[in-house]
Design a protein that fits this description.
- The protein is an alpha/beta fold.
- The chain has eight helices and 18 strands.
- The strands form five sheets. The chain has a seven-stranded mixed beta sheet with strand order 10-9-8-15-16-18-17, with helices on both faces. It has a four-stranded antiparallel beta sheet with strand order 4-3-6-7, with no helix packed on it.
- It has helices spanning about 80-85, 85-100, 120-125, 140-150, 190, 205-210, 225-230, 250-260, and strands at about 1-5, 10-15, 30-35, 40-45, 50-55, 60-65, 75, 105-110, 130-135, 155-160, 160-165, 170-175, 195-200, 205, 215-220, 240-245, 265-270, 270-275.
Length: about 280
């Protein structure tokens, strides 16, 4: 017996084996944790009888493939947003799926994509439920983003830093690039001040980026300025998803007020929030 248990809160997958005597000649088994987008194998391990392995994907979502010692595929466990997604992933998925079923075209804007391998938006875009503009500020991550999404007919990619005013900025980078930001000192604690690289970059204002485009959903992950960009939006999308865990108290107060004044219902989950227009 092979049991696979998934916990979305921690994004961990536990694989356990029990009572495998009937296939003892095909042991050990090999388990692979495979990225749902790129097919990259993030981790693999051998399993005997009554063994277990647990993979914590961090920001990455994986399928699970289990092979015998002759490389025959015994079991494939696929991550499915309707079964395994969190409240934000499921809400975006069903919103886009419902619009598609009604014959409506959707277009989203994602600011802060990293390399495009993770995010609430990945699964529906992989399944062609919406067109999307993907925006990443860091050059290294942007190159990987293009590799992962550049050939898709429903995606447009841009290498731009987005701000409220479009002025030149200092760009702070460090670690694996998940926390690159325009805020000085913001990532020092995470990556170490000595590992932060500062460069001078041009930026594009959120107004100039949108430039009259009718995006019906927006996804933000911009390390501490999510609320500022939301308040500066020149449009009122049906859905706004953003990271709230790094916002200051006064930023949360300001953006909560903006959502109330503009007719949105706000739901938070695990450091992120989704705002749905109910006006």
């Amino acid at each position: 017996m092979i049991n696979i248990n998934y916990d979305r809160t921690t994004n961990t997958t536990l694989v356990e084996t029990k009572n495998l005597r009937v296939i003892s000649e095909f042991l050990p088994l090999r388990v692979e944790f495979k990225n749902i987008l790129t097919d990259e194998i993030h981790y693999e391990a051998s399993l005997g009888e009554n063994w277990w392995v647990e993979w914590c994907g961090g920001e990455l979502i994986t399928d699970v493939l289990i092979y015998d010692n002759q490389d025959n595929l015994l079991q494939k466990w696929k991550w499915d947003v309707e079964l395994h997604g969190d409240i934000i992933e499921k809400t975006l998925w069903f919103y886009l799926k419902n619009r598609l079923n009604m014959g409506l075209t959707s277009k989203g804007l994602v600011i802060g994509t990293h390399d495009g391998r993770n995010g609430h938006w990945v699964y529906p875009i992989k399944n062609n439920l919406s067109n999307v503009t993907l925006v990443e500020g860091s050059e290294k991550q942007y190159r990987e983003l293009v590799k992962n999404w550049g050939k898709n007919n429903n995606t447009e990619t841009l290498n731009q830093i987005i701000t409220t005013n479009g002025l030149d900025v200092e760009w702070f980078q460090g670690g694996e690039g998940y926390t690159d930001t325009i805020l000085p000192g913001f990532i020092d604690e995470w990556v170490g001040k000595e590992n932060v690289i500062k460069t001078h970059r041009k930026s594009t204002s959120i107004k100039d980026l949108i430039n009259g485009e009718n995006y019906d959903w927006v996804h933000l992950d911009v390390e501490g300025i999510d609320s500022d960009l939301i308040i500066a939006l020149p449009i009122k999308p049906n859905i706004i998803i953003f990271e709230d865990m790094n916002l200051l108290k006064e930023q949360k107060v300001d953006v909560d007020l903006w959502f109330r004044e503009n007719g949105y219902k706000l739901t938070g989950y695990n450091g992120n929030s989704i705002a749905i227009a109910v006006r």
